[in-house]
Design goal:
The structure is a homodimer. Chain A is α/β, with parallel strands linked by helices. Helices cover 45% and strands 13% of the residues of chain A. The first copy, chain A, is built from 8 helices and 6 strands, in the order αααββαβαβαβαβα. In chain A, helix 1 packs across helix 2 and helix 2 packs across helix 3. At the A-B interface, helix 1, helix 2, helix 3, strand 2 and helix 5 of A face helix 1, helix 2, helix 3, strand 2 and helix 5 of B.
Chain lengths: 195, 195
């Protein structure tokens, strides 16, 4: 196997998160043997995305435009702002079809071990955004992990100091789950927040 | 998330084997948020590989050249030919440092369910190659799966009919393993082939 272009491809595929040497080899062999058109499509898509995808000036999510389509949509409820960690979290909330307000995408979370504090996360920018007229409620939809909770805690202090109503997604037993397989901390939270 | 270029990238990443929607999203967000240089590198590597990587005229492995460096190497022993399924298998054998002969890479295996028989696999081309002067032994190093075994069986019949010595990699207990955790079929084979 004396293939410098092949080796360069395997190296480059390892830039993808969660892809080690063996996966990268398998991907490279698959593309070259069975799907060269797919490889070219991926190359073009990478170029296009690197050229065109930027952050929405209002909510910071990824978009091709100056302001994303949700922020531009006049039908969205400007009284509610939902704060999420990533565009993927935003997409999950959108798929539920049960939220009609606006978003603010942090593009990360507070993580002291990685040197990401409130300022690195752009908390100032969120607080500035929250001082706009008409906003009534900020829903903190960060993850229920230690880092997501810390992020929500820090943000809620700043937001409450500005007199805003701050809520958090409900914690509880996931739909479709059997109680005996749910972890104890979740059951304890569901018991406290029972309704 | 109204990002047509982002969606195109997520779609294209799903062409990679073993990558579903969630992984593709995670990869796209990672590249755009943290590693745009890596995305550009991957794009260039894909273009370079699609343009330049082809099959070695002698052994069919991937190479940038007409004939790969192993086939060109005058120090390799032309009396031995090792038949493997993929360039990854060839790479694994090379890493052992204990084989100095030549290779033939099938780029697949016989798989009746996928409609791949001996002719689709290019068995003719292997048999033609094996009629060259100086070849003494063909080592069948296909996988020890049902399909790999079937491939070895079909090839060995054709090769033996041409009067060649045909061997198969030894089956046995893997190095470093405790006997109680080795599957029974492996132990049975190791018992039969004891030395």
């Amino acid at each position: 196997m004396s293939a410098s272009h092949l080796e360069a491809l395997i190296d480059a595929l390892r830039k993808l998160p969660g892809v080690g040497v063996k996966s990268a080899q398998r991907m490279a062999f698959h593309l070259l043997q069975h799907d060269r058109a797919g490889a070219q499509q991926l190359s073009r898509a990478l170029d296009g995305a690197v050229m065109s995808v930027r952050h929405c000036a209002r909510c910071h999510t990824f978009t091709d435009d100056e302001v994303c389509s949700i922020c531009r949509d006049p039908a969205r409820d400007v009284r509610q702002l939902c704060v999420v960690e990533t565009p993927a979290d935003q997409a999950a909330l959108e798929r539920t079809g049960s939220y009609r307000g606006l978003y603010y995408v942090l593009m990360g979370r507070i993580s002291p071990l990685d040197g990401i504090g409130a300022s690195a996360l752009g908390a100032e920018s969120l607080l500035a955004r929250c001082e706009e007229d008409g906003l009534e409620e900020v829903i903190l939809a960060t993850s229920f992990t230690a880092e997501g909770e810390a992020t929500a805690h820090v943000l809620s202090e700043g937001l409450r100091a500005r007199g805003l109503k701050v809520t958090r997604l409900a914690r509880g037993v996931p739909a479709g789950s059997e109680l005996e397989y749910v972890d104890l901390s979740t059951i304890a939270h569901a018991l406290v927040d029972r309704r």
